[in-house]
Amino acid sequence: MVSSDKQLTIPERERMHHHIVECSFETTVIHSNHTILYINEAGAEFFGGNKEQLIGANVVEVFTEEYRDFIVQRIQRGQEDKQVGKLVETAVYRMDGKVVEVELFCHPVIYGETEAMQSTIRDITTKKQMERELNKVMMPIVPVKEGIVILPLVGEIDASRSKYLKENFCANFSNDKVKHLIIDVSGIYAMTKEVIELMNKFVKMLVLMGITTICTGIRPEIAWNIVNTNSKQYMLSIPTMATVKEAIDYLE
Fold first, then answer.
1. Where in the numbering of this chain does the PAC domain appear (predicted)?
2. DSSP state of 92
3. Share of the chain above pLDDT 90, in %
């Protein structure tokens, strides 16, 4: 134990910091001015390299291209505001080029005498894969007649499921067989304004692809959320009907 009257030297401070982060089983990276100053053994194993290869590298380039601007802004805010960054989901490159989905948590630290950021990276690949598999089960495409399919939505439509719609479902409609899509939301009890906005974009993508979209089963409380969004004029222009049967009869 160090007595209170003894001031630690800079190398001693760094060694103490190293000891603390090495005790973590999660990837921990200390960086300043975008340069990696230190990474623990767990982190080196996660990225598939060794510490010598990673220390001195540009931390921003660890992240995939679509996240790099966001990471730069996040680091800048952390350095300026000296506040803990919120937990976010992003993606990084391993040294073999493999992309891994991760959660990122960071906060400002003093490394020796250097103002730095300490980032903790957690692999969530398995978690995200399970979410995608769950989305497939909870968002089945049901063909009912030639050229007509139904997308029944059940449960709560959160940002993750809305993102899945946007990124994956349009690929299923990129052929001449699907002409009409009925989105049935009778099993939906909650939908935030942000999610409604994402749903609007999804429907607009289908319209641009030449697919007619009809929404059925809108509950009163969801209708109230819709008319209170900024995009209410566009949303209300989408044909809506009470039931799936009514929509099928109309399309026939």
1. 86-136
2. E
3. 25
What size, in residues, is the chain?
Answer: 252
Q: Quote the strand ranges of the chain, DSSP E.
A: 27-32, 35-39, 85-93, 99-111, 114-123, 142-145, 148-155, 180-188, 212-216, 240-241
| 119-154 per-position pLDDT tens digit | 999 999 888 877 777 666 556 778 888 888 888 877
pTM of the model: 0.53
Q: How far apart are CA 130 and CA 127, in angstroms?
A: 5
- Pick one of 3.40.50.720, 3.30.450.20, 3.30.470.20, 3.10.20.30 as the CATH number of 10-123: 3.30.450.20
Count other C-beta atoms under 10 Å from residue 116's C-beta: 22
CA distance 237 to 218: 14
